[in-house]
Amino acid sequence: MPMWVRAVRGAIVVPEDTPEGVLGATERLLRTLLDRNAIAPEDLISILFTATDDLRAAFPAEAARRMGLGRVPLLCARELPVRGSMPSVVRVLVHFHTDRTPEALEPVYLDGAESLRDDLDP
Question: Looking at the domain 4-116, which fold is it?
């Protein structure tokens, strides 16, 4: 069966801007996304994290390193501060190898971030 490079997205609302809040929420998001999409650590290519301007207590990528994913290229960036956008959000874009079709992949939005994607089924 052929292997493809695919990507899947997710987001989570962080309950508080503390290291525990940012890292705990990010780990939960990442674990859920990897589990729901049957992504093994050895299949990962890279992970891009963004955080809104109000989250400054920790780098979201630190959560991935704590999960044992430190050999995966990780990058953090700031989300564009668009007026009226949802605050306290960490977003993730995971690139990986898989034999699954794009339609079989499941984006993960948690703890209020579901409202960012009204095109997805609840």
Answer: 60s Ribosomal Protein L30; Chain: A; (3.30.1330)
CB-count burial class (<10 Å; 0-12, 13-18, 19+) for 77: exposed
pLDDT tens digits for range 88-102: 999 999 999 999 999
d(CA 51, CA 85): 12
Q: Would you state the pLDDT for residue 119?
A: 72
Active-site residue among 27, 36, 76, 100? Answer: 76
Alpha-carbon distance of 79 to 9, in angstroms, equals 14
Strands 74-78 and 44-51 come out as parallel
Pick the catalytic residue: 31, 66, 71, 117?
117
Q: What digits encode the pLDDT tens for the residues 67-81?
A: 999 999 999 999 999
91 annotated active-site: yes
Taking the C-alpha atoms of residue 83 and residue 73, their distance in angstroms, rounded to an integer, is: 31
